[in-house]
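G., the chain you wanted modeled:
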Amino acid sequence: MDRYLSAPQLARLLEVPPDARPYYKALAEAVRGLILDGRLAVRVRVPAERHLAEALGVSRTTVTTAYDRLREQGYLESRQGSGSWTALPDPAALGADNPWISPDHDGLLPLHTAAPPAPALLGEAIAEAGRGYHRYALGMGYDPIGLPVLREAIARRYRERGLPTRPDQIIVTTGAQQAIHLLMTLFAGPGDPVLVESPTYPHAIDVARMRGARLVPVGIPEDGWHLDLVTCAMRQSAARLAYVIPDFHNPTGHLMGDEDRAELVAAARRYDTTLLADETWAELALDDVGSPAPLASFDTDGRVVGIGSASKLWWGGLRIGWVRGTAALVRRLAMLRAAVDIASPVFEQLVVAHLFGRIEETRAERRRALGASRSALVAALREELPAWTFTTPPGGGSLWVRLDAPVASAVAEAAATRGVRLAPGPWFGVEGTLERYLRLPFTQPAQILEEAVRRIAGSAAPYGYRPREALTPTL
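Predicted structure as tokens:
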């Protein structure tokens, strides 16, 4: 290790109020902040405790205690005779609820993903699944269409939402992403036109491109869908497949009304288009906006295929998704997925089946937590970044924020230097569009979102952010 920081150099970087109490804790937090902000690189040797104490004018015991705290948190590593150096903690050592660590293990605040933490009921569901798990060891251990108990639970939920559904219309997949991949593989080939909304879920775009399909984007204005634009694109492109997100659209948060749903399905029937309806966010209404019928409720000839997931309502680590279609489609998908992974894990399927039995408890928990986080994010943006605009969605997990200049990618790069990972608009579009937008999720705790917005505001100044005083008219 050849990089090191002298005591005077580190002391100049640290901003610790002299009256901070307890001082050791403030000192540890300051060092931790430097590491997360990228101002103090990883694998850099820090000065000896005695030398830093002299540079700061504090006791050696104070610095020793601060270093011990940083070691416990995983931000310092030490070896006898070699000193101490900066590090990023192992997420497993900190616990799954550590909000500072992104899925990339880079220490940045993870505002590039809209995945919420696990709900309180997950532990109970895991215990319940464990108690009955041994019975499934008597069988082969895999079922290409999914465990009957889970398929019945999913079908029952569709029936509760007003859509008659039998278990043989359900196939369980390894996450919604696999469901999208299987359906795109089945319905789209090289050169085939596939209609997508713009913006939309980026991994659906990725799958269509992998298939060599020709993407047909249709813009979603800030007031929601304009069905005449969608139907015209459907007719003019002759698209036989369309991927749509009618329920708390990702990333805009829009909720399609029943009238528009009926019109969309009628157009698909008229132009012989199959609709892949991603319902991943359907259960996450935060406001009292009613419950639009599932898109397939308006279907009469099996051209609406529903895609669901356990990842947003419950937890992404479960990796359980599903497809609702005709029984014939389920059989075709089961044959196709046999070349991929044969079946989804039994234990995770049992966990999700138990969670379906208490779905309203989780929905209530999500309404409370996501509602509070949404309010915190809205307030922080209006305070710190008043020139950025958005419409507060009635549900889902993110704000679709319009910047006052087409600089989303530059803002995301700048924010990363201050410890925040963002999802710029072009991730959600085709051919580099949507540079005026950022997706900002409210699936993290409120205090994390407030801290993230402060950091974003500090990094966005050169890229279209006008401070509040600049927005105040002179008299």
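Residues 424 and 438 are 5 Å apart (CA to CA).

Shout if anything looks off.
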